[in-house]
Amino acid sequence: MKRIVLLLVATIFACSIYAQKSYSLEDCRQMAASNNKSLLAARESLHAAKERSKAARTQYLPNISATGAYLWNEKNLSLLGSDQFLPVGSQMPDGSFGFTQDQISNNWAIINNSPVPLDANGQPFDPKKNPEKIQWKNYAFIPKDAFEIDMRNVFAGSILLTQPIFMGGKIRQLNKMASYTQKLAEAKLEGETANLTVETDIAYWRVVSLVNKEKLAQSFVALLQKMDSDVAKSIAIGVATKADELSVKVKLNEAEMSLLQVQNGLALSRMALAQLCGLPLDEIFQLEDENLQVEPDASLIVRDSTQHYPERYELKALMQTVNLADANRKLMISRFMPTVGLTAGYFISNPNMFHGPSTEFAGMWQVGVAANIPLFHWGEKIYTLRAAESEKRAAEYQLNEAREKISLEQTQTEFKLAEATKKLSVAQANSENADENLHFAKLGFEAGEIAPLLLMEAQTAWLKANSEAIDAAIDLKLTRLYWEKARGILGN
After folding, report:
1. pLDDT number for residue 4
2. Residue ranges of the chain whose pLDDT lies below 70
3. How big is the CA angle at 384 (ends 374 and 370), to the nearest 5 degrees?
4. Which sequence spans correspond to the domains of the chain?
5. Does the domain at residues 20-61+168-337+374-486 carry the CATH identifier 3.90.550.10?
6. Are 73 and 152 in contact, with CB atoms under 8 Å apart?
């Protein structure tokens, strides 16, 4: 039994510790950053952009590839259509092919003191003009099979190296575009982080606000409950009326309903914050800032108008868009330029023809330079260049417009921060006045000098003043958040 009791005590103690788990604003930001799918996707996009940038740099290096192939053919390849018979003659003094009288069977005649061959009809002819009339005595036999190549099984392979020499600037611009794309992904990640930070801070301070409003509503209900008890006593001694009691009960019911609404809103807000941070929706936790300070924080309102702030992530993204458009324009210009490349490799095949037809593996080295010069393209390259120039100008207009809007937004947040600071000071003063007014109203009611209705009015004014003080304190923190976001220093 002792062990069971100790186990129960330890379990209760552990649950108590778990229930008291507390998170700071920075904790919530970090948990949200590790849980948010959009932010994780932006990180993966940045990783992909970095890998593409590395891939683009490899275009400067030679490309080496190996290729192998096998081909089966139904028929062999023959260089001759049939067996061939070549006449046997002699090489003449001038180096040409000819014959002597003993190498042909034609009869001869003397014409103009020169021997002339006669054809089968006994007519003289010129052998150079009519070689078909020559009757050769001897022929060389060339069989068709001797010039047949076995092509049924063909093997081929090669190793090829390709090195760009001059590409008109294409590779350089592609590398720049890859670098700009990486910077664009970085800007988008920064933007996703900033937006998530704002969303997390809003959810965090909403919970803080409702926690304090719950405390305020509970205090207001306690005041009305005490007043209800005091009015009941006053009725017993004839100081108050039944109508006063009914008015207090109505006000108490309204306060209890308001408390229930605040508690429901707080529960939903905690669940929303838990979902954003990747926590279980039913987890019980506290926030470090639940004891909200309504005093203006000096660090929130001290500003240096001469300080240089970094570029907003929107401007960074638009600047990279302009850079991408400019690189694309230069890439379009490079299409007008010739390209030169070096190739080198080794080729091997079976069968091969290096020393006559052979069914063995043999190969050779190859080295070459290839150039391509664009000549005529029907204006296609000109049109794409004009389109790229227009895209660059459009990106520049968007960048300039964004700068103007961001400058206006920064000025607006500056004014709103000053207004929020002043609003908190006024709300704090009103809260102090309402506290003092409620104190004297209580004393007057207890002394029988003030009617219950006046005390309820003082309590209502107290509730409103303190609620406005809470709203003003939260508004100042959120306004500071928007001010930091407008200047690109959120989270720094």
Report:
1. 44
2. 1-20, 146, 239, 293-309, 491-492
3. 25
4. 20-61+168-337+374-486, 84-142
5. no
6. yes
